[in-house]
Structure formats: C-alpha cells, structure tokens
From TrEMBL:
SUPFAM superfamilies: BT0923-like (SSF160574). Residues 1-21 form the signal peptide. It comes from the Bacteria. The keyword Signal applies. Keywords: Signal. This is Beta-lactamase-inhibitor-like PepSY-like domain-containing protein.
Length: 99
C-alpha cells in the first residue's frame, strides 16, 4: 500500500514539474514597443488624421491625454461614457497599431 501511495505521489509530482516551467516564446516585438518612451503632448498637437480616425472608429470616447514617441507613433488615453479609460495606439496617418 505504501508503494502505491508513493508511486502515485511521484507520478503526480512528475506531471506538475513538466508543466511548471513551460517556456514562453515570443518574437521580441512587444519588448521593443514597451521600451519606447512616449512623452505627453497637448491634445491640440495630435494630427488631424489621428483625431479623425478616433472619431470615426470610436465615436463614444473622449480623448483625455495624448503621448508621442520618437517614431511618430501616438498613444491616446481615452475615456468612455461609463468612465473607464483605455489606451489606443496610432501612427501619424491615423492607422491603428496593436501594441
């Protein structure tokens, strides 16, 4: 009986070790994006193409803050009608970026 309990414990322990250290593979793009610094800018400095794209795609949100990085990408902090905030990313032409 002891051997059965011991064998069961070893089997379950062996299974958990195999799943505990599962490596996460990624292409490094997110690391690069997160390192890029965005500096806050005035909302009036956001290009017309970006504000137009925002109004067209998300008419129910309000632009609260805007940020810009060295690659002419914009991080937009928007507030929805229910008070929740989210961040959207766009390039100078108003194309949405996934970050």
């Amino acid at each position: 009986m002891k051997k059965l309990v011991l064998a069961t414990a070893l089997a379950l322990g062996g299974l958990s070790l195999g799943t505990a250290a599962t490596p996460i593979f990624h292409d490094g793009i997110m690391d690069e994006v997160l390192v890029q610094d965005f500096t806050e800018i005035e909302i009036s400095e956001v290009p017309e193409a970006v504000t137009s794209a925002l109004a067209e795609a998300y008419p129910e949100v309000t632009l609260v803050k805007a940020y810009k990085n060295g690659e002419e990408q914009y991080k937009l902090e928007v507030s929805s009608e229910d008070g929740s905030t989210t961040e959207l990313f766009a390039d100078t032409e108003g194309n949405w970026l996934e970050m």
